[in-house]
């Protein structure tokens, strides 16, 4: 489809796509929030580790991950495009600032969205980019990966020490299935020794570590506040754009939106707060 | 000149059918070669243009506003009458016809009124098919309410915005034709001249118009095989009226100057329920729908002292106990009570106020009280019925009508007079037709509530498409009409001269200054009640004021620019002539009938007293040049079907 | 009451506009806003100060939709559910500064001063905002019952007066409320069903073509609509649009 045709898609269809992608992100957000709650479990990362392992290896999840990323991008691009187009519809602006009572969340959606994007980059830097190997973090690996993999050559002394240290420091899971909290340096050494071993990011350890620093906790709380503002607009707006706003149900949608907003925000916020205060 | 009303043969109920059988048609291929100009986009204009366009004619339609949807038909509140008898209360075409004739005080043409009643039902069908959201009851069927001058419920309504909804229906139909290319829309254009062209047989016909493009101020020429005028009434000659600011009588007056007779100009309807005047800066009066009289009760204090106390602000309406209130309409007209026709209600209010019982700060107001209705029906029902009207009243006056009675006073509302037309709605100029309020035909000396919408749509949807075709049937031989002819040159020149003349005065007074003064003269001396003395006085005052106007008016800006002051000046110049004719007509009609009340001719209890022996005719006036007395032509009214009686709303 | 007025003056569509300051005094609180402007104009003409201020107005009772001024940051001024002509000076304080601007939108070019060209609205309606019936040959008015609830809802939407305040208030200059009102009005009635899909398609495409923005659900339109037409009509428009997207598109063979 050439760009001309894309531009010719009606404004409502474009809005529908923004809403559709947004709605998908809303669902994802709920899922993400629920998963995060595992971090609060004081099991050394057993449950959360198992979960991230599944998420990191399952094929369907991997496909979904691409879809999700695409959704993010499209949601952002379309929104920005619409915002840019809409600006052009009033070439001469009013002298007086508007005193019309409006839904502030919607009016500021482009701003909260932009803020969100900035926060998101930081968030990705903290976690997601580790997975993509853009930045270094903390890792975990299955012990069987060592058992089953034949070292290419003699295991270097360095690697042996690193491995033993991990075992001795109690960084294995109870059932000895996993070795966790592997630092980036150790990972590099071990990886060299066992090229076939598949290291995964240890998000549990990373989260626990980062959420013990006050300014990171504060940063995340601000992040969640912005998320809250944006989805407060998004939830209701999605219903409106899908044409599901009706005199009879508009109140219900509003209440659901508020509930959703609080649940997600609090659900997210409780993790850094909990970790910080050692829960 | 002999006025031929061209009423078809046969008994009354078969006249229209007979006409349609005998009329001539235009074949479909020829229709698109025939051009029609429609001036005005109100109910009559929009519906006519839409219907004619749908038939295949080539239509040009003009309006002075920025959109056809702004025409003042949009402000009609109460409803539209139709003889559907959905309520099973004994309504019929015959009864609607009789009510309309009686309401018009036996001064309307029988055949026209009967046709109006006949097609009234079709209008409702048409509007419903267009998606007009009429009020419905819980069965899903159409609801009706009652209105002044009728004892059946035959008024269809859409909340308090019936006119709006009907106009938007017609506007939709018009828009469809514009989209199909059969109708061309010209907004912000005002008709300034009618162009007459002589046929080969020496007969002068209406062949085009000159319009002022209100944005650029330039003059434009349009030619057509026929011209339809649907430009509304001339109520704004009174300055303060319920008409819109831009409603004006100029288009009709221009045609009158070109030879079209003007009929019954003195029949001006004063609406009884308007919000009273409150200051000299006031620009217009707001109507409160007549439907309010269904449940509201009109009263003034019985004692003069109470009225005086209210005027002085010492007492409030609610301080007057029930037994001290004079429900004068119920007292005087027990059978119809608060639902007497408009002219009767208006005069009764004026009579009470003149006698010193008026309320409000000016003493020119009476109460319209809903306390009883609220007690009987509950606030919720009243709110459902009249909520938007109450809200409108509160917005304007800052009073809450749920708690204190409304204050109302009569105001100029509708003009029954207009261009004289025959049964085909053709004026005395061949090829010039007039529809809606612009013509005089159906309401006699007084129009019943909810009948204006009916007439406008009847003319546009169901009459003109037939009669215009009859006229156009032999016009195909004319071929395309050029605007590049001496007739058009001359017409354009005359408009330019007129504009230039106004521009050159460069006086020291604004147009509105003169208009307000003219309005004052008309209201005081040619208003609700008139007599020989007041009318003679008015005639002299109008002449004097007109002279002053032509010496002292100031029109700022340029001719060729967007210039509302120029528009107003052009219109006011015509109003002077029109005012003179209204006064002359009122002076000549030495009887009282409907909206025309001569104090010399009244019954013992102050009701209108007709003089059927001497005035049973339509007075059609012929223009004789500026400021010259016009010539009177009479169209005798022959009532074959109906028995003439004294209008009686008492029992 | 006395006021200082800052009014947008612009000779014609192409000229550059600017604010001009005028003072009016001794205005009655009962006076309507437009009557106040009448008084100002009278003053401007009499004292040969300037060409009178041009502003659109007609019925002056809030139904024709002709008037529309952006007063102190709000279309139709600082009150809910009214048109400019229904705004009264009692809503202001003595000595107030009042800023008066025309509607601003790409689709509503200025003609002169405060007068704008709203023919874009007509064009949207012309593209399909009606039921395509020709005169005559329609069923009896009571042949198709319409549930009262639907008739009432259709009427709620049909009350739109086409003044353009929704566009003027919207930060995107979107006409969604205007289009939504018409689409919803006809979609509520059986008479409007036949062309429902075609109608919404044509009207929305026309709206986009004419340079109106898209809706971002801020509901400024609803807040400023003089007839208080609800946002649900926009939802209805969206719904009709989605319905249309999935409806089979039968193209007649040429």
Number of separate helices of chain B: 18
- As residue ranges, the low-confidence spans of chain C are none
Spatial extent as radius of gyration of chain C: 21 Å
Number of strands of chain B: 20
Give me some keywords for this one.
heterotrimer, A: 279 residues, mainly alpha, 3 helical TM bundles of succinate and fumarate reductases, 3-stranded antiparallel β-sheet, 3 strands, C: 254 residues, alpha+beta, Ubiquitin-like (UB roll), Fumarate Reductase Iron-sulfur Protein, Chain B, domain 2, 2 domains, 5-stranded mixed β-sheet, two-stranded antiparallel ribbon, 9 helices, 11% strand, elongated
Topology:
The complex is a heterotrimer of chains A (279), B (651) and C (254).
Chain A: H1 3-8, H2 11-36, H3 46-57, H4 59-87, H5 104-107, H6 109-131, E1 139-142, H7 143-148, H8 157-168, E2 178-182, H9 184-193, E3 200-201, H10 203-210, H11 214-241, H12 250-276
Antiparallel strand pairs in A: 1-2, 1-3
Helix pairs in contact in A: 2-4, 2-11, 2-12, 6-11, 8-9, 11-12
Chain B: H1 15-22, H2 28-31, E1 35-39, H3 43-55, E2 58-62, E3 80-81, H4 93-103, H5 110-129, E4 145-146, E5 153-156, H6 162-180, E6 183-186, E7 189-198, E8 204-213, E9 219-223, E10 226-229, H7 250-257, E11 262-263, E12 268-274, E13 297-301, H8 304-311, E14 325-326, H9 328-332, H10 342-357, E15 366-369, H11 371-377, H12 379-397, E16 406-415, E17 418-419, E18 432-434, H13 452-472, H14 486-505, H15 511-525, H16 532-552, H17 564-588, H18 612-615, E19 617-622, E20 631-636
Parallel strand pairs in B: 1-2, 1-10, 2-6, 10-18
Antiparallel strand pairs in B: 3-5, 4-5, 7-8, 8-9, 11-17, 11-19, 12-16, 13-14, 13-15, 15-16, 19-20
Chain C: E1 3-9, E2 18-24, H1 33-46, E3 70-71, E4 74-75, E5 97-101, E6 110-112, E7 115-116, H2 119-126, H3 148-158, H4 165-169, H5 176-187, H6 190-193, H7 196-209, H8 220-224, H9 232-246
Parallel strand pairs in C: 1-5
Antiparallel strand pairs in C: 1-2, 3-4, 3-5, 6-7
Helix pairs in contact in C: 2-7, 3-5, 5-7, 5-9, 7-9
């Amino acid at each position: 489809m050439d760009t001309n045709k894309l531009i010719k898609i009606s404004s409502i269809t474009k809005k529908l796509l923004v809403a559709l992608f947004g709605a998908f992100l809303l669902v994802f957000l709920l899922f993400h929030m629920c998963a995060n709650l595992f971090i609060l479990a004081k099991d050394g990362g057993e449950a959360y580790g198992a979960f991230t392992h599944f998420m990191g290896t399952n094929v369907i999840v991997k496909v979904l991950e691409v879809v999700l990323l695409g959704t993010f991008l499209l949601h952002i691009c379309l929104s920005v495009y619409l915002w840019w187009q809409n600006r052009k519809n009033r070439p001469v602006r009013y002298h007086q600032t508007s005193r019309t009572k409006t839904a502030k969340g919607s009016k500021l959606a482009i701003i909260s969205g932009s803020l969100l994007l900035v926060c998101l980059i930081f968030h990705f830097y903290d976690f997601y980019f580790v997975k993509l190997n853009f930045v270094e973090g903390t890792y975990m690996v299955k012990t069987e990966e060592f058992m089953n993999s034949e070292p290419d050559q003699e295991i270097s002394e360095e690697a042996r020490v690193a491995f033993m240290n991990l075992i001795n420091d109690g960084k294995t899971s109870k059932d000895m299935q996993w070795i966790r909290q592997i630092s980036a340096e150790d990972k590099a050494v071990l990886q060299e020794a066992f090229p076939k071993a598949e290291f995964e990011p240890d998000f549990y350890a990373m989260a626990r570590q980062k959420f013990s620093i006050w300014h990171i906790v504060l940063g995340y709380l601000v992040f969640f506040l912005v998320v809250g503002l944006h989805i407060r607009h998004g939830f209701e707006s999605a219903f409106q754009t899908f044409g599901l706003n009706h005199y009879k149900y508009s109140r219900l949608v509003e209440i659901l939106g508020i509930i959703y907003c609080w649940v997600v925000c609090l659900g997210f916020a409780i993790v850094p707060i909990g970790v910080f205060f050692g829960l | 000149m002999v006025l031929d009303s061209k009423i078809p043969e046969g008994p009354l109920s078969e006249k229209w059918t007979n006409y349609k059988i005998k009329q001539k048609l235009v074949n479909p291929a020829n229709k698109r070669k025939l051009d029609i100009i429609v001036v005005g986009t109100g109910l009559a204009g929009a519906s006519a243009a839409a219907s004619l366009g749908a038939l295949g004619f080539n239509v040009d339609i003009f309006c002075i506003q920025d959109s056809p949807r702004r025409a003042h038909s949009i402000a009609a509140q109460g409803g539209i009458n139709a003889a559907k008898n959905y309520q099973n209360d004994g309504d019929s075409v015959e009864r609607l016809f009789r009510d309309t004739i009686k309401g018009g005080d036996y001064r309307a043409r029988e055949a026209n009124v009967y046709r109006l009643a006949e097609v009234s039902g079709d209008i409702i069908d048409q509007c419903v098919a267009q998606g007009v959201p009429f009020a419905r009851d819980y069965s899903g069927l159409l609801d009706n309410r009652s209105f002044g001058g009728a004892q059946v419920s035959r008024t269809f309504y859409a909340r308090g915005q019936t006119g709006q909804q009907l106009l938007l229906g017609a506007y939709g139909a018009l828009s469809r034709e514009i989209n199909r290319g059969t109708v061309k829309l010209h907004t912000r254009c005002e008709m300034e001249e009618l162009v007459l062209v002589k046929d080969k047989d020496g007969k002068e016909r209406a062949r085009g118009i000159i319009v002022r493009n209100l944005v650029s101020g330039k003059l434009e020429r349009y030619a057509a095989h026929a011209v339809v005028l649907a430009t509304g009434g001339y109520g704004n000659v009174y300055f303060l009226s319920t008409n819109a600011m831009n409603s004006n009588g100029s288009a009709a007056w221009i045609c009158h100057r070109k030879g079209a007779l003007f009929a019954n100009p003195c029949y001006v309807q004063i609406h009884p329920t308007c919000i009273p005047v409150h200051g000299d800066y006031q620009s217009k009066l707001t109507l409160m729908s007549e439907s309010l009289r269904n449940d509201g009760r009109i009263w003034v204090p019985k004692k003069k002292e109470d009225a005086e106390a209210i005027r002085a602000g010492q007492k409030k309406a609610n301080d007057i106990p029930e037994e001290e209130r004079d429900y004068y309409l119920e007292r005087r007209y027990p059978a119809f009570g608060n639902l007497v026709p408009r002219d009767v209600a208006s005069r009764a209010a004026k009579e009470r106020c003149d006698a010193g019982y008026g309320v409000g700060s000016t003493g020119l107001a009476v109460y319209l009280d809903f306390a009883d209705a609220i007690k009987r029906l509950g606030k919720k029902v009243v709110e459902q019925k009249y909520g938007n009207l109450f809200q409108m009243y509160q917005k304007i006056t800052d009073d809450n009508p749920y708690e204190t009675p409304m204050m109302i006073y009569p105001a100029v509302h509708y003009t029954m007079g207009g261009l004289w037309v025959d049964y085909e709605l053709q004026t005395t100029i061949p090829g010039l037709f007039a529809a809606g309020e612009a013509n005089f035909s159906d309401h006699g000396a007084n129009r019943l509530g909810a009948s204006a919408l009916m007439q406008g749509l009847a003319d546009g949807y169901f009459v003109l498409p037939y009669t215009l075709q009859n006229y156009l049937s032999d016009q195909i031989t004319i071929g395309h009409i050029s605007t590049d002819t001496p007739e058009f040159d001359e017409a354009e020149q005359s408009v330019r001269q007129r504009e230039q003349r106004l521009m050159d005065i460069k006086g020291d007074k604004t147009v509105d200054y003169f208009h307000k003064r003219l309005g004052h003269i008309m209201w005081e001396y040619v208003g609700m009640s008139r007599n020989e003395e007041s009318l003679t006085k008015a005639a002299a005052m109008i002449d004097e004021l007109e002279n002053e106007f032509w010496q002292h008016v100031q029109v700022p800006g340029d001719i060729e620019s967007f210039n509302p002051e120029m528009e107003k000046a052009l219109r006011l110049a015509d109003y002077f002539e029109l005012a003179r004719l209204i006064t002359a007509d009122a002076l000549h009609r030495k009887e009282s009938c409907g909206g025309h009340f001569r104090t010399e001719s009244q019954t013992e209890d102050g009701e209108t007293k007709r003089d059927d022996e001497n005035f049973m005719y339509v007075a059609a006036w012929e223009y004789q040049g500026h400021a010259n007395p016009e010539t009177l032509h009479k169209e005798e009214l022959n009532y074959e079907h109906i028995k003439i009686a004294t209008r009686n709303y008492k029992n | 009451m006395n006021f200082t007025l800052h009014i947008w003056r612009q000779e014609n569509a192409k000229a550059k506009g600017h604010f001009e300051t005028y003072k009016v005094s001794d205005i009655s609180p009962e006076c309507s806003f437009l009557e106040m402007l009448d008084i100002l104009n009278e003053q401007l003409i009499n004292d040969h100060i300037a060409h009178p201020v041009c502003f659109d107005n007609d019925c002056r009772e809030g139904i024709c939709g002709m008037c529309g001024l952006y007063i102190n940051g709000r279309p139709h001024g600082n009150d809910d559910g009214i048109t400019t002509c229904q705004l009264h000076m009692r809503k202001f304080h003595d000595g107030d500064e009042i800023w008066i601007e025309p509607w601003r939108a790409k689709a509503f070019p200025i003609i002169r001063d405060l007068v704008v060209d709203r023919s874009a609205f007509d064009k949207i309606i012309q593209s399909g905002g009606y039921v395509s019936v020709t005169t005559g040959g329609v069923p009896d008015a009571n042949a198709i019952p319409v549930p009262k609830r639907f008739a009432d809802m259709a009427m709620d939407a049909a009350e739109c007066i086409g003044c353009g305040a929704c566009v003027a208030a919207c930060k995107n200059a979107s006409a969604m409320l205007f289009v939504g009102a018409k689409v919803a009005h006809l979609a509520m009635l059986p008479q409007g069903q036949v062309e429902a899909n075609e109608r919404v398609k044509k009207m929305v495409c026309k709206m986009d073509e004419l340079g109106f923005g898209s809706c971002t659900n801020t509901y400024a339109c609803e807040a400023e609509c003089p007839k208080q037409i609800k946002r649900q009509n926009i939802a209805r428009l969206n719904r009709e649009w989605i319905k249309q997207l999935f409806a089979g598109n039968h193209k007649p063979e040429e």
